[in-house]
Amino acid sequence: MAQDPLNPEEVYLLAQLLEKWEKDDDAKLVIFKGAGRAFCAGGDLRMFYEGRSVEELLMSGVILLADDSCLEVVYRMYWLCYHIHTYKKTMVALVHGIVMGGGGAMVVPLKFSVVTEKAVFAVPEASIGLHTDCSFSYILSRLPGYLGEYLALTGARLNGKEMVAAGLATHFVPSEKLQELEKRLLSLDSGDEDKVRLVIEEFSAAVQPDEESVLNKLSTINKCFCGDSVEEIIKSFESEASIEGNEWIAAVLKGLKRSSPTGLTITLRSIREGRKQTLAECLKKEFGLTMNLLRSAISGDVYEWNPSTLEEVTNENVDLVFQPFSAELALKIPAEESCRWDGKYENSVYPSLKEKN
C-alpha cells in the first residue's frame, strides 16, 4: 500500500478507502504493507520546496500559499492521522523496511504493528527545519522517560527489535515468515482482535534490544533530555560524553549540532506540550506548526538554516509559529462519533479561499 515517499494522491486515496471500509460491513480487516523495499519514508518534501516560490496571500491573519500546493496535502494528512488513530476496524501494519516521519503514523497507532529485522524507524524532521509531525508530538511524549525527546531531536534510528521494546510496534516477525503471516491473516476472514492476535503470535518471536542499543542507555538519556531547552540538553549531553563508556554520545552530539536550530527548538516545545494535550489538540497544533514553518513564518529554516545558531532563536519568534489558527482555519477534528468522517479538506474554508484568490 505505502511506498517511498508518500505522495498527495496516496493520502487522498487512503482516506477515501478507509472511510469506505469502515462503513462496509463486509470489510473486516485492513492490512498496511509496503510496496517495495520501504514501508513508507514519510512525505514527499519536493512538493514543499517546489511550492515555496508561489505568491502569498494575507487573509484572516494567516498567510496562505496561493496555489494550495502544500496546504491541501498537509490538511488531508493530519485529518487522515486522526482517523488512523481512531479507526473502528482492526488494522495490521506489516513493516519490512524504512518507516519514517509521516509513514510512522500508519504504523505506531495501529492495534497490531508487525516489524521484521529489516525495519528502520526514525523521525528526522527536526534536523531539516520541520518538527515531529503527523501526531508524533502525541506519540513520542508518551514513550518511557525522555526517550521521545531523544528520538525527535537526534533523529536516531531504531531497528525492529527496538521498536517493539520501545512500544512503537507490537510484534517482531522474522522476514522469512512475513508472507505466510499475511496469507494466514487474509484466510481468517475476520477482524476479531483476539483471532488476529493469536495468528500473529504464532509467527512472532520474543526479542530483546542488542547490548549496544540506545534503549540500554535510557538512564543517560533521561538525565540529559529532561532539560528545559535544547541548549541545556546539549550542555548536559556534552558533560556526560566525557564519562567512560559514553563514547557513543560524540556522534549523536555532532548530528545535533548540525541540525536546524529552529526545528530543534520547536520540536522540543511541541513534545513537551504534547505530554498534556489530547490527540486532537496535538494534531491541530501540528497542522498550524507545519503550515507556519512551510510559509517561513519566522525563518527560512526548512529551506536554509536561518538563524544559524540556537542562541539566535528567540522566544518571541517561536511563540509566533505556535500561535493557533482561528476556529475557521483550524484543522477540523470531528467532535461527535456520529459525524466522525466530517471535516474533510473539500468541506473546509480553504477551497473557497483559493477560489477567491
UniProtKB/TrEMBL annotation:
Principal EC category: hydrolase
Residues of the Enoyl-CoA hydratase/isomerase domain: 6-321
Keyword Hydrolase (UniProt): yes
Superkingdom of origin: Eukaryota
Keyword terms: Hydrolase
Catalyzed reactions: 3-hydroxy-2-methylpropanoyl-CoA + H2O = 3-hydroxy-2-methylpropanoate + CoA + H(+)
Cited InterPro entries: ClpP/crotonase-like_dom_sf, ECH_dom, HIBYL-CoA-H
Pfam families: ECH_2
Documented EC number(s): 3.1.2.4
GO molecular function: 3-hydroxyisobutyryl-CoA hydrolase activity
Biological or metabolic pathway of the protein: Amino-acid degradation; L-valine degradation
BP GO terms, sorted: L-valine catabolic process
Function: Hydrolyzes 3-hydroxyisobutyryl-CoA (HIBYL-CoA), a saline catabolite. Has high activity toward isobutyryl-CoA. Could be an isobutyryl-CoA dehydrogenase that functions in valine catabolism.
Family per similarity comment: Belongs to the enoyl-CoA hydratase/isomerase family.
Full protein name: 3-hydroxyisobutyryl-CoA hydrolase
Organism listed in the record: Cocos nucifera
